[in-house]
Each structure stands twice: as structure tokens, then as C-alpha cells.
Design brief:
Strand content: over 45%
CATH superfamily: monomeric porin ompg
Helix content: under 10%
Distance between the termini: 33 Å
Shape: globular
Length: about 250
Amino acid sequence: MHNYSKIIGAMAAASALVAGSAQAEVTVEYDLHAGYTSEYIFRGVDLGNDLVEAGVDASAQVAGLDLSAGAWYGSFNKNLNDTGDQTEIDIYGEVSKDLGFATASVGYIWYINDDNTDVKLDDAQEAYASISRDFGFAELALTYYWDVETDNDGYSAFDASKSFELNQCLTLNVGGTLGYLEEEGHLSHLTAKVSLDYAFAEHAKFSPFIAHSWDLSGGHVDDNGSLINTSAAPGTDNELFGGAVISASF
């Protein structure tokens, strides 16, 4: 119950920020989205099956800074020895600045987990810093996530993405993420994704996608000559998954 009280408080704070922006005649843009994914793959880790998700995002530009915030809800079947389902709520915000040669961003993510299973996942909070640049052939970004509550092994992500406009209604998107664990000192996963945006209305699109995640954690030999598993979490594996998202902006 305490989680929902926090959510209500966060929503009230967000409403106050939006109201303040409106008074300052700042244009706020919104995006609503919902979708389904066959498997919930998070940073190379298979958390469960049949992910149903929905979310809302808001963005605005104030004093040369790009501000964004949002909330995401997901429900999925866990890959455990029980039959319970889990729900997750993420609340996040970001501030970014175009520096000319690159765009720098800082942000915060709050993960709230609630499930009916015997194995409970702890809530978590992360702060992150990112730098990105569009080189033309691809947009590249490097992000470091610092875990406030639990331990993400100093997770870093290198992202590359490119979009190709096929016609007025269709856009092909390709991208990939390479994960690295700073504390463990090794790569964790490589995930590649291809999606197709179909703009069926002026401010709405339908986006089916397919993706594959490769486990790069493998194992290594310790000082005693023993092979040990270096996976950051149980469930890291090679996975093929897909789904679709429908979104609308206004």
C-alpha cells in the first residue's frame, strides 16, 4: 500500500510541475503508448513472459533545457517455480541539454515492484548520466546508471540507432545496445532490435518489432583455476522476442 501512496504523491508533484509550466506558457507535449512483448528482457535478463505494458510521457523545453518525465506500467508472468504474476511501475524524469557537439542528459528512474509470488523483487532507484550525438550514419549514446538502493554492478550501456523513412507512413528503425558491468569488469549482453513504425493517423502509429539478446557474460577462470559464472543475474541467456506498440502524441 505504501507504494501506491508514493505514486499518488509523485503524480501530484508532476501535476504541479505541469501547472507551473502552463503558467509560464511553456508548451508541454504528451505521448500515450501501450503494447505487448512475448518476453520481458531487461538488460539481457529474462524476467518473464507475456509482458503487457502501458505508459505516458510528457516533455517540454524550458530555458534551453529539454525536460521529460513519465510513468510506465507492466504486467507479466514470472519465470519462476510458481504461477504468480508480477506488476512493475517505473517513474522517471530527465533533463538534457544540446551542447552543439553532443547532447548531455541526466535522469532518474524509480522501479516499483509488486507481485503475488514467493520470490519478491526489491524496489530500486537509479540515477544516470548520458551523452549522445547523431553522426548521420547512426545516433550513438553512452549511458552510465548508478544504483541508489540495490546493486546493478555499475551498469553502462552503449546504444546505436538509425531510422530510415520508407514513405510518408512507414519508418524502419534499427538499433542495438551493448551492456557492460563496471564492477564485474565484463560485457553483459548485446541486444539488437528492428521495428517498423506505421503512421496510420496524423499523431498515432503502430510499431511491430522483433529483437534478439545475446548473453556475453559467459564465465571466467578465477585465481584458483575454477570456471565461474559471471552473469549479473539469473536468467541471462540468448533470447529471441517480439511484439508491438501503439502510441499517440498530442
